[in-house]
Design a protein that fits this description.
With 1339 residues, this protein is of the alpha+beta class. Helices cover 26% and strands 24% of the residues. It is built from 32 helices and 55 strands. The strands form eleven sheets. It has a ten-stranded mixed β-sheet. Strands 21, 22, 23, 24, 25, 30, 32, 35 and 36 form a nine-stranded antiparallel β-sheet that branches. Strand 35 and strand 36 form a beta hairpin. Helix 25 crosses helix 27. It is globular and about 100 Å long. The chain starts with 35 loop residues before the first strand and ends in a 6-residue tail after the last strand. The N terminus is likely disordered. It binds zinc ion. The site of zinc ion has 5 residues, from loops.
Length: 1339
């Protein structure tokens, strides 16, 4: 087929403003210019989970709908679509109609509009975008509603990602939240700076959003006005004793005036509502009705029901400048010793689980888990279990979908409608002949537990427990001495080499051979499972008796090369007589647990090294600790060890110190190394600690085992029987993989523990480190009252330290908390187990067990995860970090089956020929390494594609003052870095440049018809969003004076290391452990790297690009969401009656489109062109013997044709009123001659004479809707017509009105016959080009 490439239309401001956001009546109508306008905003904050699971919110929505209906002045805003969607599904048609009306009338307004109110610290940005998209799609489909307000009222700190990506680029006008650091809020209150313009990206000026921080630091009602929480009702009847309206009005006005003093301008917003409020909406609204009436008759303030949208429009109308905010709101403390930094790590296993590959079926479960009480790990245990059940259910379903798709592809079946080669499904069967008896005997016991997995043709299994060497398919087959197939799917748009580890039973073979998709041999290594893996297997089997998993005692490791957006298959089979290649193990332990294979030579040398030819690790055999890492010419002294903070139990007696560490809050009380002795177990450990002996006594001695082989080199370190690290170097890979296993965290000593891994290097990073998620805060003076907890920041994917020469990066496979408390050091919190509640509402200690029960007789939960360490020269560090970060975040999906073969084939490799052993959706096209495909999703009517440019350029904004630069780029030191980055065009001199990607190459297996650039959540055209968003000015001057007001400095007793920093002067006391706030700027990293901006261009290639190219230019840090639509579907309309609705629609499209045509304009006066065309079309419809009216399913393009007979349409053209009008027009224009000429069609008549009546289809008119022209629609419809003509063996006839359309028709097989000049001698008159397309039969 001809693929249509299309220009993305960036609608101009003059075009139709058609996105239907139901706006309420302009609230300024309620506002009073001379007084304080109080916008009363009613809402309910419904946590999806936390204390309750998601079933209990229906009453709020039920009663709110009733209350709104009772009084049209009342308004309500709602944000949690997860609840709303469920409630909506249960409503009858009447209620739905009622709600739709409330939305249209502006009484019910949706804010945020995501499935949940996501957390901003621990949620990955892609998950945030996806969960917001889920809710936005529902709102758009259901109500045509496009949310305009970000409403993150409860999350515990706020990221710049939320401001830039999830607000500005989601099309919001403003963002509101409740919680910010108590010191920050006090500072802002004093300056009336609680409302600001938040510039969410250091590089991009258009990522800014008007932002309001509620004065209460929360989102509840003003004090005394929580009617649902038993505050006194408003009693306005003077005859009653309880009459209280005057004092209530005074209290209300007083609070309003206090709030007004902290904000700017004559409008304030009062939130009425809180957690699960408005379950009794009648009570709330009845009191509010009275209160508003009384307040307004008092007259000091003007109160009215409003919405955040109306409030923001009122603020926008000031045309004022607002304070500028450029960093973020992390970490959040609500009290000097209450830093909410524990939740960055709480429930690490859940945080890892959430990062599972998402598919359609998983979408809701994964979205639910992005909630600020889910991914944060701050929910109650039974809610956590509910989340896990949902996720697991979703995961199983998703796996079934994925495996059946992979199975079909591997069998060679194609997607429906794409008939290419490959063998049919029934020609594939499995190996059931050779050795089947042996298999049956060997696995008889296993077979009793579960049916033989190889009894079906290619049944793929996805194994959930690969990280503890468990998988039914591979372990069972290998234990029977049989091979198996591994299908590895790569979700990235780049090809990659990825190390894979597959569980096996080592009982039958001591070596395994791996064959790749081209029948090439792939180097493989068999390595034994580590002791900690065995422990985990036993633990799992012990707590889960019905666990269906089969544990392996070894793994086959190999490096797989995978195509972009596709899979390759590998065959793993026992190798005969190759046992010499078995990996060797060395240990520094006298009593090594792996007695066989142990070579005690390790402790004879001081250092033992692992070297894969790219990187080299040296371990100190005496301490068992890592000593150094070398990558080519770059070397760092590097150690890593495990340590734990004692969780405060909140029982201390000192003033202000009664805060416990818990699910939210990290409150450490001393740091201890994890070691086999004195690791905190029992009274002996406690005594040692009391005596100061157990704490920080120098390097711990750890057991070190070294495993070597052709694929992977491993150092296994045992710090304690509950805490191990395995460090790996893979063949051909530059990153160091560190697998941590922590748990069950012992607590027999009665101490809560928070376990960290500490990387200590000689990188001279001073007091700076960098994380991907969030930002350094130069805009206010932080007094760090908790030197450790207050220096913890969310690490969603990466953190690094650097000096002039090198950069050392830690990439994480899940969200964790991280800090750098000394120069060159990075610590990451891995796991937490606290024995006290931190009194923030969850009411439970964070005490996870392997059984999912709280305070039960079950071992503590063990968590296992991975870090990748990346060392690189400073100047070249961006590329490995960016690339590997994506690779760690998007691991390949592995699925396993028995080795299939074709029937009748007997060769060793026979039978695999028919399999499609490798496949790429992009047919091998590889995206540029700075471009990442975020999303490729079939939404039913279209595909949603998101592309992101991964690299940062730290651009100066026009007019930015020096301090703005500082704010954007950090301290003076990093300003240098930033300036040099600008001259180098970003963090990488080449990859930070704009790049152009051929979208067609990625989408070549999708049939599509047009591409539209969308907002990031896909609910509106990007151009509409750009046009409609409210922009607020930010004033640098204002901000500067605000920033530098010395009277509010919290700097106190110290000499921190910051004295040399002008304008910063963060003189903060150095604490016993830890240092002043020291983190560094936001790297525009993963959490905000995806962005959508006005500069994105989709270039139309009709003009000159190579065929089949749809080029998309991405600028650094830019994400582009586009929506290609599938092929046009044409429908036949039976035009029996021109007044029929569909016929009328088609006539409209044609008349409007053709009224701009040169020929039309020549034939009649411009003002009459449309009615003239309408008359022409109707006359053809009425006069032809068999008119055919065709339209695209959305009427974007239409055509009118007719089988040509020898009729004369002049008789009938005057029929109908419209035709009458046209005739008048024709007469008036005095060009009847031309009209007649047009009608006579001599060439057509000749054609009919040649071939006979009924042999020619004449395309009278074909046109695309005026707003859809240039998108290739005409060509699509023409294709349809040609096919139809070929089927009917019709010749096609038409008259092209321009050279451009003539070229188009020529591409579809039309041949030029002759020209018909319309103006005789007049050379300026248009010419019709007569064209004929012979039927295929006569070709
Ligand atoms: Zn909440």
């Amino acid at each position: 087929m001809i693929r249509i490439t299309v220009l993305l239309l960036l609608a101009s401001a003059a075009s139709c403003r058609g996105t239907a956001t139901p706006h309420s009546a302009d609230a300024t109508a309620d506002a009073h210019p001379a007084t304080l306008n109080v916008h009363v905003v009613c809402h309910s904050h419904d946590d999806a989970g936390w204390l309750k699971t998601v079933a209990g919110v229906q009453y709020t929505l039920d009663t709110v709908v009733q209350a709104l209906t009772a009084n049209p002045a009342r308004k309500f805003v709602y944000g949690e679509m997860g609840f709303f969607m469920r409630w909506w599904a249960q409503q009858d048609e009447d209620t739905r109609a009622l709600v739709t009306q409330l939305v249209e009338d502006g009484q019910l307004e949706f804010v945020n509009g995501g499935y949940v109110q996501h957390d901003e610290a621990t949620a990955h940005y892609v998950a945030m975008v996806d969960q917001t998209t889920l809710g936005h799609t529902f709102l758009h489909k259901t109500f045509g509603a496009v949310p305009r307000i970000g409403w993150q009222i409860d999350p515990f700190g706020h990221s710049a990602t939320q401001a830039g990506l999830l607000s500005a680029y989601a099309g919001f006008d403003a963002l509101f939240f409740g919680r910010a650091d108590y010191q920050d809020m006090a500072h802002r209150k004093n300056r009336s700076a609680l409302e600001m313009v938040w510039q969410g990206s250091g590089s991009l000026a258009d990522a800014s959003i008007f932002t309001g921080n509620f004065i209460s630091g929360n989102y509840g009602p003003p004090e005394g006005f929580a009617f649902e929480w038993a505050d006194p009702p408003i009693m306005d009847d003077p005859r009653l004793d309880e009459f209280n309206v005057h004092e209530r009005v005074d209290a209300f006005v007083e609070q309003c005036q206090r709030m007004a003093a902290s904000t700017r301008g004559p409008d304030i917003m009062l939130t009425i509502g809180s957690d699960f409020q408005f379950a009794n909406a009648h009570l709330q609204y009845k009191n509010l009705d009275k209160l508003i009436r009384a307040v307004n008759s008092d007259g000091r303030v003007n109160a009215f029901y409003s919405t955040p949208e109306a409030y923001v429009r009122a603020k926008h109308a000031y045309k004022e400048s607002w304070p500028l905010k450029q960093d973020d709101f992390f970490p959040y403390a609500d009290f000097p010793h209450a830093f909410w930094t524990g939740y960055f790590t709480s429930r690490p296993a859940s945080k890892g689980f959430i990062r599972s590959p998402t598919t359609e079926a998983l979408e809701e479960a994964v979205s639910l888990l992005q909630h600020h009480d889910a991914i944060t790990g701050t929910e109650k245990q039974h809610v956590a279990c509910d989340y896990h059940r949902r996720l697991h259910r979703g995961l199983k379903y998703a796996q079934a979908v994925v495996t059946s798709a992979l199975e079909a592809l591997i069998r060679g079946q194609d997607r429906p409608g794409r008939g290419t080669g490959g063998v049919a499904a029934d020609s594939i069967t499995v190996d059931s002949s050779a050795g089947s008896d042996a298999y049956a005997a060997a696995s008889q016991r296993l077979l009793q537990e579960q049916p033989n997995p190889i009894d079906a043709p290619i049944t793929l299994e996805i194994c959930d427990w690969l990280n503890i060497t468990a998988c039914n398919t591979t372990v069972r087959l290998s234990s029977a001495g049989k091979g198996f197939m591994v299908a590895a799917y790569n979700p990235l748009g780049w090809s990659r080499e990825v190390p894979l580890r597959v569980p096996v039973s080592s009982g039958t073979a001591c070596a395994w051979a791996v064959t790749g998709p081209e029948n090439e041999a792939v180097t493989a290594q068999l390595l034994p499972a580590s002791p900690s893996t065995h422990d985990l297997q036993q633990l799992l089997a012990g707590v889960n008796a019905t666990c269906p998993t089969t544990f392996g005692d070894a793994e086959v490791a190999f490096v797989a090369r995978l195509p972009p957006l596709g899979y390759s298959t590998f065959f793993v089979q026992p190798a005969s007589g190759a046992c010499a290649r078995r990996g060797s193990i060395q240990s520094n332990a006298k009593d090594a647990s792996l007695q066989t294979d142990v070579d005690n030579a390790v402790d004879k040398e001081q250092y033992v090294s692992l070297d894969n030819g790219i990187a080299r690790l040296e371990f100190d055999t005496h301490t068992g600790l890592l000593h150094s890492l070398t990558l080519q010419d770059t070397k760092v002294q590097l150690s890593m060890h495990l340590a734990w903070y004692n969780s405060s139990d909140g029982l201390e007696t000192q003033e202000n110190r009664g805060q416990a560490s818990g699910a939210y809050i990290f409150r450490p009380n001393g740091l201890y190394n994890v070691s086999r002795e004195g690791s905190g177990e029992g009274w002996w450990g406690m005594l040692l600690r009391r005596l100061g002996i157990g704490s920080n006594r120098g390097d711990p001695i750890v057991q070190l085992d070294i495993v070597r082989g052709d694929v992977v080199l491993e150092a296994r370190q045992v710090f304690a029987n509950w805490a191990t690290l395995v460090t790996r170097l893979y063949k051909g890979q530059s990153q160091v993989e560190m697998e941590w296993t922590v748990g069950p965290i012992p607590f027999a000593d009665g101490l809560g523990k928070e376990v960290v891994v500490v990387y200590t290097s000689d990188v001279d990073s001073k007091d700076e480190f960098w994380t991907d998620a969030n930002d350094y805060r130069p805009s206010w003076e932080l007094n760090v009252t908790e030197p450790v907890a207050g220096n913890y920041y969310p690490v969603t994917a990466a953190m690094y330290v650097q000096d002039a020469g090198k950069q050392l990066t830690v990439l994480t496979d899940r969200s964790q908390g991280g800090a750098s408390l000394q120069s060159g050091q990075m610590e990451v919190m891995l796991h937490r187990r606290t024995l006290a509640d931190d009194a923030r509402g969850v009411g439970e200690p964070l005490n996870e067990t392997a059984c999912g029960c709280l305070a039960c007789d079950c071992p503590g939960l063990v968590a296992r995860g991975r870090h990748w360490l990346v060392l690189a020269p400073r100047e070249e560090a961006a590329k490995p970090r960016r690339t590997l970060q994506q690779e760690l975040n998007d691991p390949p999906l592995l699925a396993f089956s028995a080795i299939p073969r074709e029937v009748g084939s007997s060769g060793a490799d026979g039978g695999r020929i028919g399999l499609r052993r490798t496949f790429s959706i992009s047919e091998g096209h590889i995206l540029h390494s700075n471009v990442h495909l975020l999303t490729l999703k079939d939404t039913g009517s279209s595909y949603l594609v998101r592309l992101a440019h991964l690299y940062q350029v730290c651009a100066l904004r026009a007019g930015a003052s020096q301090h703005v630069l500082k704010a954007a780029c950090g301290t003076p030191r990093s300003r240098q870095l930033c300036v040099s980055a600008v001259t180098q065009e970003g963090e990488d001199s080449i990859l930070s440049r704009p790049t152009t990607e051929n979208l067609n190459a990625v989408l070549q297996l999708l049939h599509y018809q047009e591409v539209r650039e969308m907002s990031l959540t896909g609910n509106q055209l990007h151009a509409d969003m750009q046009r409609d968003r409210l922009r607020f000015d930010a004033s640098n001057d204002l901000t500067t004076s605000w920033l530098h007001d010395a009277s509010v400095s919290h700097a106190s007793n110290g000499k921190g290391g910051d004295s040399g920093r002008s304008g910063s002067g963060r003189g903060i006391a150095r604490q016993a452990v830890g240092r002043p706030q020291q983190r560094q700027l936001l790297l525009d990293d993963s959490a905000e790297l995806a962005r959508l901006r006005a500069g994105a261009q989709i270039i139309d290639c009709h003009g000159g690009c190579a065929v089949d190219e749809l080029l998309v230019t991405l600028k650094p840090m830019e994400a582009l969401a586009t929506m290609p639509r599938p092929d046009l579907v044409a429908r036949h309309i039976h035009p029996s009656n021109p007044n029929d609705q569909e016929t009328q629609k088609a006539i409209d499209v044609l008349a409007q489109a053709l009224s701009h045509d040169d020929v039309t304009l020549y034939l009649c006066r411009p003002g009459l062109a449309e009615s003239f065309m309408r008359a022409m079309i109707i006359s053809y419809l009425l006069s032809g013997p068999s008119p055919i009216l065709l339209a695209a399913d959305d009427f974007s393009c239409c055509a009118l044709m007719g089988e040509v007979g020898m009729h004369d349409c002049r008789e009938s053209r005057a029929e109908g009123a419209a035709a009458e009008e046209a005739v008048q027009a024709l007469l008036a224009s005095n060009r009847t001659e031309a009209y007649t000429l047009l009608k006579e069609q001599p060439e057509l008549q000749r054609l009919v004479q040649q071939h006979g009546t009924g042999s020619v289809l004449c395309i009278h008119f074909i046109a695309a809707h005026p707003q859809r022209q240039g998108q290739g629609l005409g060509s699509q419809l023409l294709q349809h017509i040609c096919k139809m003509a070929d089927q009917r063996r019709h010749h096609l006839y038409l008259e092209a009105s321009s050279a451009k359309s003539q070229a188009l028709y020529a591409r579809h097989g039309f041949q030029h016959v002759c020209d018909k000049p319309l103006g005789g001698e007049n050379e300026a008159a248009p010419v019709l080009h007569v064209m004929v397309r012979p039927s295929e039969a006569s070709h």
